[in-house]
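Q: How would the structure tokens look for this protein?
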Amino acid sequence: MYSIHKSSLQTEVSSLKFSLFMETWGNWTFNNENEDLLAEVLNKFASNQCSLDTPKKVLLSSLATLSKTVRVKISSSSSDDSDIDEDFNAVQISFPKSSSDISNDEPKSTAEVVKDLQLQSACIGIALRNFDDESSFLSSQPQVEDSHKTAIKQIIDMLNAGDYDAGELFLVLQTELRNRNNVSEVIGDVWPEIVTDRARHGFCEALLKTDVRPQIICDQIYLPWFETRELNLTGFVDSLSKLIIHFPEYACKFLLVKLLVDKESILVKHLNWLVIIMQFLDQQHWCSLLNEYTNHCDSLDQYQIPVLMHLVNNCQKILNNRDAERLIGLCRNAAYKHSTNRDFGLLLVSVIRAIDLDKFLPEITTICEQLKGVSKFLIMKALKDTK
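A: Here is the predicted structure in token form.
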């Protein structure tokens, strides 16, 4: 009897584990409940009860032929199926003696065993090549789908479909955020796949309901949205106008200021959109935005004048002394540079109407003295009208 170690036959047959390599035969063992199944399958093919009409059946037939010349001693193994090496630890392959050897109980020579083994390996090799990369001949273990990919796909499909249940979207998103524990990753997976402004708004709304911080929503959604859809900001403006009430302070101090300090920003060229965005906020938030914007103005450039005038006009009569001082200081430093600038004159008119003129009249008078032409006339008229 010859036993050849080093595992070489290992193909999975459902819960039955079975593997094959061409180089050598080795020790293998099977789970107890599958031993009868293997024997029954091989016996059917050994007795030619099955037609060889598929590559898989050819392989089984080859294995059945092998079973006629090889006695497989199968010992019991652990049923916990936890380790392949442990499941295949107790099988010895013994090569039968020829009819002339049975009486004197003499085994085959090593050379004969090797020759038989090579022939059998060649037969099985031919059968294996007929598989053409097919799956195992019995049902294989199904692959477990990535739960994260499934959830992300569900979220994207719901948003892009448009007709979705907001409560269901919230639950799916909330669960994925808890499982992932990284909102930036979820946004990174979902946002690029959203194709409509309505879906983008729905995603922002769902994130807010899951208590995602305003900083993340503004920096990772609204800013990219603004940059990528700059030529058509209708959806952006509509969405932000509806959701800004949930984070007005952050929007005024960070998001909107970033969009207004950029000279090339489309929002600077279409300040009427700012009115739409801020329409559901009170005047105090306009003052907050004005204060933050003036903090970013070291000097007063031409593109900043309409922005400041727009902000001041929406802060009518409620500028506190600190905001007024900062604004008047900017105007005083820019008076000589813009002495003939009609837009600068209109800005000063708005400032006069939004401050406590009795407190700041000397500063306004000093600025007016540096102006010329239409600008000076506008300021003198505004001062006269306020008396």
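Residues 110-129 form the longest helix (20 residues).

The two ends are 121 Å apart (CA to CA).

Upvote if useful.
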